[in-house]
Design brief:
- By secondary structure, the chain is mostly helical.
- It has 5 helices and no strands.
- The longest helix is centred in the last third of the chain and has 23 residues.
- The protein starts with a helix and ends in a 6-residue tail after the last helix.
Length: 96
Amino acid sequence: MFSRLQRLLGREGDGTVTPPERPVRRHNVFEAAADYVTALADDDQQRADEAAGWVSPDALSFGVSELACRAVIALARERDESPQTVTRSLLGLPAA
């Protein structure tokens, strides 16, 4: 118990003081998706791989899908067009 108290206080058994450990920052799904998509748009595969490692593949897929939906809705409102028209235009598909 005493050694646990020493660790909590940042002291080693020989009396030296150690800096407290910094907690690992956890990224949420939307941060991961935003950084992942931005990195791909910038052609930065290393940064994309890093962002992809922050969350599970399923979570990243959900985040990217959510980002795509929100982007299409925002662009459709800006253009005063339907989301279908915007998505087909972005993908170079003929109008439906």
